[in-house]
Design goal:
This protein is an alpha+beta fold. 22% of the residues lie in helices and 31% in strands. It has 5 helices and 6 strands, in the order E-E-H-H-H-H-E-E-E-E-H. The chain is globular, with a radius of gyration of 21 Å.
Length: 174
């Protein structure tokens, strides 16, 4: 017979949320790198993504075209999907950070259906920006198979301070 080890819903809020991060601006170490898990992109999910975003370019949606007329001789995974999946491999639920945008997005090489991707995230820089949040920038390098770079971008995020720099400066002046 199965037992419920958490029978009281009133206590569920005190259980830490899986994949929730709470790091703050001061916690980020410029130069720190993390590697993601790997992920293979199947034909079914490539076609589902294409249909969801209405991308039926012949290179991603037409097998006959890709084989007979396409430059690569086979169908590609949409660059938007490689971007989404590649960054999704690093997805977290940090309640203290907010996406500010992306710079330098480049699709370096094609990814084909059935290939496996992974990524490396590197914290590049950080600087005070707003009274309550600083700006941090990390790069995402997405690789396929055994290390061929296919995508590069820099993610700008605002992150809450643990100690507001203006408040700290005011204390130092007194």
């Amino acid at each position: 017979m199965a037992r419920n080890p958490n029978p009281d819903p009133a206590t569920h809020g005190s259980v830490p949320v899986w994949n929730m991060e709470t790091w703050l601006y001061e916690d980020l170490a410029v130069g720190e790198r993390k590697r993601s898990i790997r992920r293979t992109i199947s034909e079914g999910e490539a076609m589902l993504f294409n249909s969801l975003v209405l991308d039926m370019h012949p290179y991603v949606g037409d097998e006959i075209f890709a084989k007979t007329e396409g430059v690569f001789g086979r169908r590609l995974v949409s660059g938007a999907q490689v971007f989404s999946y590649g960054l999704g491999l690093f997805a977290h639920n940090n309640i203290n950070s907010f996406s500010y945008g992306y710079d330098k997005l480049r699709f370096v090489k094609p990814v084909f259906i059935g290939e496996t991707i992974y990524g490396i995230r590197t914290w590049l820089r950080k600087e005070p920006k707003y009274p309550e949040m600083g700006l941090v920038v990390c790069s995402y390098e997405i690789f396929k198979n055994e290390g061929e770079l296919v995508l590069y971008t820099e993610h700008l995020q605002t992150v809450r301070y643990r100690n507001n720099p203006a408040t700290v400066a005011e204390r130092d002046d007194s």
